[in-house]
Specification:
The chain is an alpha/beta fold and about 775 residues long. The protein is about 30% helix and about 20% strand. The protein is built from 22 helices and 33 strands. The strands form 4 sheets. Strands 7, 8, 9, 10, 11, 12, 13, 14, 15, 16, 17 and 18 form a 12-stranded mixed β-sheet that branches. Strands 25, 26, 27, 28, 29, 30, 31, 32 and 33 form a 9-stranded mixed β-sheet that branches. A hairpin with a 2-residue loop joins strand 26 and strand 27. Helix 16 packs across helix 17 and helix 17 crosses helix 20.
Amino acid sequence: MSARLESGLHPPDALTARRLRLKGRVQGVGFRPFVYRLANELALAGTVRNLRGEVEIFVQGSAGQVDRFLREVLERAPPLAAPELLASDRAELAPQQDFTILDSAAGEGAQITVPADQCICDACLGELARPSDRRYRYPFINCTQCGPRYTLIRALPYDRANTSMAAFPLCAACRREYQAPLDRRFHAEPIACPQCGPRVWLEATALAAPHATGEPPLENQSALAHAVELLRSGGILAVKGIGGYHLMCDATDDAAVRSLRARKQRPHKPLAVMFPARGADGLAAVRHEAQLADAEAALLNAPSRPIVLLGKHPHTRLAASVAPDLREIGALLPYSPLHQLLLADFGGPLVATSANLSGEPVLTEVEAARAALSCVADAFLHHDRPIVRPADDSLVRVALGRPMTLRLGRGLAPCELTLPWHLPRPVIAVGGHLKVTIALAFENRVVISPHVADLGTVRSETVFTQVIEDLQRLYGVTAARVACDAHPDYASSRWAARCGLPVSRIWHHYAHASALAGEHAVEKEIPRETDMLVFTWDGSGYGADRTLWGGEALLGRAGDWRRVASVRRFRVPGGERAGRAPWRSAAALCWELGRELPDRDADPLVRHAWQHRLNCPATSSVGRLFDAAAALLLGVRETSYEGEGPMMLEAAAADAGDAALASGAGALPLERDADGVMRFDWSPLLTLLLDQSRPLAVRAARFHGVLAATLCALACEERARSGVDCIGLTGGVFQNAVLTRLAHQRLTQAGFRVLLAEQVPCNDGGLSFGQVIELAAAAQHGAP
């Protein structure tokens, strides 16, 4: 593995040597082979090796060529690489005529970066479709520029022995490629072929073939062919992918989609749709069913291959049951060779929803899938490449022309950011209770895990603990402190209390605000000491006064927030149960004003409890206002997934059209309370929602408009008082594209600078990062 430096090319007095150290995304992305090829091209001698997350390069040759190497090793790095130069030191010349790739070495204080899983690259796609290629139609084709990473790495350095591919010895042909420095599979750790690599097999369940469940399974190409036949006949297929299993069926077959919903007991939650890659940019099939802007097209084709929320095409052929009562669908392209083969052979869009119990991590193991999904799927398309840890699909939408990450998952995570401050000790932050992510922070770095789960089940909490342990082990960092939500009853908070480390409890909405402030400080869009007014609107969170917050405006900066505005409180019967029962929020608003629910269908025991202040905590939640509006306008009494009512309300508002959304909507009344907090009075909203003289869609649009106008009025009040002119919008409510657009428009017209979450989710998936930012900022002021 060496490139010969021809003697005599450069006179001895022109020779120079440098020793480089690079960090960043330099392992698992073909960086060492690239370095080797660049040195070969420039006729340089030296060595390159992995050093626990860093790459160390020794290079010698003519001064001009060495200088050129120093530039081009950064400028021409492979597409998946993101090298950062740590050091470039003069070195003594060595008696060496070759450039050599050394074995990986362990080291202390390493700058480890764990690469995310990446979609199949164009070169592998070409081979996959070429009948003369030895990997023709092989479902596990990959190279240094594509394939699984995070989901198969057991330990670093990133060598085959430290991955789940260690159980697959290389055949002679693969070994030649693996050892050939000029081959794009040089040290491609997951490399495989049909002779030596993983296999797929089709396994029928009793649902589809009760008489055949004991027969030998079909393998490889026969398995794929029969899987496509099953899908075409309206069947449901459980497919093991890169980060876990999907449940798949024909997305244009309403009966198949309804059957999947009934079997999975997922009656309403929208289902993602995977489209075959067609046309010059691969998006022709998507354009038949969805409205697609340039920014959305770029996201769909990104190496991370996230699910992207798109507006439905007016004449879509997709089954209405894919995303009932909504104007958007979640679309993605095939990202693994197996998905590519399935979609190309099937020839149309397939539902591709995570195979899991509601809120739990996606299933990854064959036996667990059999146990959980045999009563859901007609057949399994298994494979025998182990998945070390689950990774659900990432979810992204475009808001105001910019990407907004709603779920960090496969391809986008682990997500690493540079902290605006240096931490004195490593910290593990464990988020909240729903949409949990884990953040590991050390020195000036923070790594956010993929979405873990909603906590509250044994499997969710098992994977939660695994991810906490894995992040520390992979990065070679041991946390000295844990940060968690201040809510004492969250499973994550209980874990923190018993883990044995010192605990920092962070107020829920402070973490939301700090996540937004931290992200923009990291991106240098705002100085870290800039005061902001951050609207943190969501469903519910434990507030600094130990009541339930959810409609707050916080003034200040990370580590120093003060609530200056909020919502008029109302008492919600059943407390947290209201999150899946919008009628309870509607009842709360009506009863607060001495009115009855319009349908008069409230449980009298609930009314009695509310009257006697039994289990009806006061809240200032905007999310609950949206729930109430969904109940009063759309008749949504109970929901089967978080945010269902508000999502339907957003769709209804969009149905009203731009004219209705743009029509003048006045702000709600504002009044300062005894603590000096400016509160807006929601009571006029009730009159609006119950006004039968206006069309439903117009009332939904006006509801959004009034809240946007009120938010802007609160911002103007605070600017007049404190001079703040930088506004942040975060919390789960701002996943609503209609509200976000209206608020942004009003604020910018009023002269404010407006910041939105982009890389880090604005929902509870961003809490772990916000907890780290709060803790890091506090540490700068001497807090423990």
